C-alpha cells in the first residue's frame, strides 16, 4: 500500500473512496454464471460503500470542495448498476456544480446520462471533463460514445474515424494501458464493417491492438477482450486462434455465448472437411472440370491451379474453378463454396462483400441489460439456416460495461424475412431480404478468381485434425462469373444501428 493509500485508509472519506474503487472492480471482474448473482453482489457492496460514505463526519463535508467529493462518490456508487438511476444523476450533477473542475465527476455524469439515451448531453459532459486536462479514461469513453452516435448517420464512417483518433490519443497518454488498446481494437473493428467489411487490414489493426491490450495484466480478467479478439480471428479465418480465444472467454465468463461460438466454428470446419472428403474423388469432377482449361484469361493475369498458389495474396494470378456446392453454415461469415480447379483439386472459396440487391437495412436492438449481443440471421423459409450476412457481436469493457454491436448485413426486396435471436429479448423481425442472394454464384457456375488470397489450413483441435486449401475473395472485382463481371450493385452495403449502453 502506498503512503497516499495508507492515508486514505485512515481518513473516512478515503475509506469510502477505496470502497467505491473495490465496487467497480467487482463490476469489471466478477462474472458468475447467473447474472442476477452479480447484481446482488453489487447491491450488497454498494450498500456497504454508502454506509461508509455516510459515516464521514459532517464537519468533513461542509466546504464546497468536500461536499462535491461526497456528492460525486455517492452518485458513482448509485450508478454502478447497468440501468439508469435518476438519483445517481442528481448527486453527480450537484458534484459538478459545487466543483466544476472535478473531471471524474463529469465523466461519471456523462456515463449516467448515456444510460438514459441522452447522447448529446453525455458527449458534452465528456468534452467538459477533457477541458480539465488530458485523460485516457475520458478519451476512451468519448471514443465509444462517438461510435454509438455514428450509428444510422449518413457520415458514420467519418464519425467512426473520429472515434479511432480519440482512441489513439488515449494510447499516447499511456502506451502501456491495456484498456486504451482494447478500445482502439473495438474502434478498428467497427470501422471494418462501416466501410464495407472488405478491408482486412482494419481487422489486422484491430488484432494488433487487442494483442497490445493483452500485455497489460489488468486486462487478463476481461473476458470481452478474449471474445472480441476471437471474433476478429474468426473473420480473418484464423480458425485455430478463434477457437482458443472463444474457449478462454467462456472460462472467464460463463455468461458469454463463447461456448456456442466455439461449437459454430467447429461445425463449420466439420462441414468443410466433410464436403471436401465427399467430393475429392467424385466421378463428377472430370466432366465438371473438363471445360475449365479452355477458359480465356486477360493477358494481365497468369493462369494457375490451386496447387501452384503461394500463401497469401497472389498478384497478377488467376484461378479458374467450377462451383460444386454452396456450403450452408451457422452464423459465420462469409459465403462459402466448394470448387474444383482444372486438375480436379477441390478447395474452399470464401466470398466477402457480395450480394444481389442495393437495398440497405438497419438493425436496431431494443434496450437490453446484457453486455453483449451476437446475432444469428437466417432465412426462415429456407431448408436449414442460409446465412446471408456478415455478422458481428462484440463487447466493450471500460470503467463501465458497454454493449456495442456492429452488424453488416444483406437486405433486399423479396418476400422472405430474417429473424434474429439474442440473449435476452427473444426474436426480432428484420426487413425483407432477398432469398436469391446466392443465385449470383450458384452450383455449376464457372468462376475466374483474380489475385486470390490463398491459405493452406493444417491444424488440430480437440484431437480432430483439419486440413484443406482455401481461397478468399474480398472484392466483387476479383470474381468473374461465367466470364462476366458482377455489377457494382452487388456490393454489400453496411449499416450500424444497435443499442449501445454504458
Automatic annotation (TrEMBL):
Residues 300-357, 439-494 form the Tetratricopeptide repeat protein 5 OB fold domain. Residues 142-170 form a coiled coil. Keywords: Coiled coil, TPR repeat. Transmembrane segments: none annotated. Pfam families: TTC5_OB. It comes from Quercus lobata (Valley oak). PANTHER family: OS01G0506200 PROTEIN, TETRATRICOPEPTIDE REPEAT PROTEIN 5. This is Tetratricopeptide repeat protein 5 OB fold domain-containing protein. SMART domains: TPR (SM00028). TPR repeats lie at residues 103-136.
Amino acid at each position: 500500500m502506498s503512503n497516499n493509500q495508507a492515508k486514505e485508509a485512515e481518513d473516512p472519506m478515503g475509506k469510502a473512496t477505496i470502497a467505491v474503487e473495490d465496487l467497480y472492480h467487482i463490476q469489471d471482474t466478477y462474472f458468475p454464471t447467473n447474472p442476477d448473482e452479480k447484481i446482488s453482489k453489487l447491491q450488497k457492496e454498494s450498500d456497504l460503500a454508502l454506509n461508509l460514505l455516510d459515516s464521514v463526519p459532517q464537519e468533513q463535508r461542509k466546504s464546497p470542495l468536500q461536499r462535491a467529493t461526497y456528492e460525486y462518490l455517492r452518485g458513482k456508487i448509485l450508478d454502478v448498476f447497468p440501468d439508469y438511476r435518476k438519483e445517481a444523476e442528481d448527486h453527480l450533477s450537484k458534484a459538478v456544480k459545487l466543483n466544476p473542475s472535478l473531471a471524474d465527476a463529469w465523466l461519471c455524469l456523462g456515463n449516467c446520462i448515456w444510460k438514459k439515451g441522452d447522447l448529446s448531453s453525455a458527449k458534452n459532459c465528456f468534452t467538459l471533463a477533457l477541458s480539465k486536462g488530458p485523460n485516457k479514461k475520458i478519451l476512451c469513453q468519448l471514443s465509444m460514445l462517438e461510435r454509438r452516435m455514428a450509428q444510422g448517420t449518413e457520415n458514420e464512417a467519418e464519425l467512426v474515424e473520429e472515434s479511432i483518433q480519440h482512441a489513439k490519443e488515449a494510447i499516447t497518454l499511456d502506451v502501456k494501458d491495456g484498456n486504451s488498446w482494447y478500445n482502439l481494437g473495438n474502434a478498428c473493428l467497427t470501422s471494418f464493417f462501416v466501410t464495407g467489411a472488405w478491408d482486412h487490414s482494419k481487422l489486422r489493426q484491430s488484432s494488433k491492438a487487442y494483442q497490445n491490450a493483452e500485455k497489460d495484466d489488468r486486462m487478463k480478467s476481461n473476458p470481452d477482450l478474449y471474445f472480441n479478439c476471437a471474433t476478429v480471428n474468426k473473420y480473418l479465418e484464423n480458425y485455430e486462434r478463434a477457437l482458443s480465444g472463444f474457449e478462454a472467454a467462456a472460462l472467464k465468463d460463463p455468461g458469454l455465448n463463447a461456448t456456442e461460438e466455439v461449437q459454430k466454428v467447429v461445425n463449420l470446419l466439420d462441414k468443410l472437411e466433410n464436403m471436401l472428403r465427399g467430393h475429392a474423388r467424385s466421378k463428377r469432377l472430370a466432366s465438371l472440370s473438363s471445360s475449365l482449361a479452355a477458359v480465356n484469361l486477360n493477358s494481365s493475369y497468369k493462369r494457375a491451379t490451386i496447387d501452384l498458389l503461394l500463401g497469401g495474396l497472389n498478384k497478377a494470378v488467376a484461378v479458374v474453378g467450377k462451383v460444386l456446392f454452396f456450403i450452408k453454415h451457422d452464423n459465420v461469415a462469409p459465403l462459402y463454396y466448394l470448387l474444383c480447379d482444372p486438375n480436379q483439386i477441390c478447395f474452399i472459396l470464401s466470398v466477402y462483400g457480395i450480394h444481389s440487391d442495393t437495398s440497405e437495412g438497419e438493425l436496431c436492438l431494443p434496450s437490453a441489460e446484457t453486455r453483449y449481443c451476437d446475432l444469428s440471421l437466417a432465412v426462415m423459409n429456407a431448408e436449414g439456416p442460409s446465412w446471408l450476412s456478415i455478422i458481428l457481436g462484440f463487447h466493450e469493457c471500460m470503467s463501465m460495461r458497454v454493449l456495442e454491436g456492429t452488424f453488416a448485413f444483406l437486405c433486399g426486396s423479396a418476400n422472405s424475412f430474417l429473424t434474429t435471436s439474442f440473449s435476452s429479448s427473444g426474436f426480432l423481425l428484420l426487413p425483407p431480404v432477398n432469398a436469391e442472394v446466392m443465385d449470383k454464384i450458384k452450383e455449376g457456375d464457372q468462376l475466374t478468381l483474380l489475385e486470390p488470397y490463398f491459405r493452406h489450413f493444417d491444424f488440430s483441435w480437440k484431437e480432430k485434425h483439419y486440413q484443406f486449401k482455401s481461397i478468399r475473395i474480398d472484392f466483387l472485382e476479383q470474381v468473374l462469373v461465367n466470364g462476366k463481371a458482377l455489377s457494382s450493385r452487388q456490393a454489400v452495403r453496411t449499416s450500424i444501428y444497435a443499442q449501445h449502453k454504458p
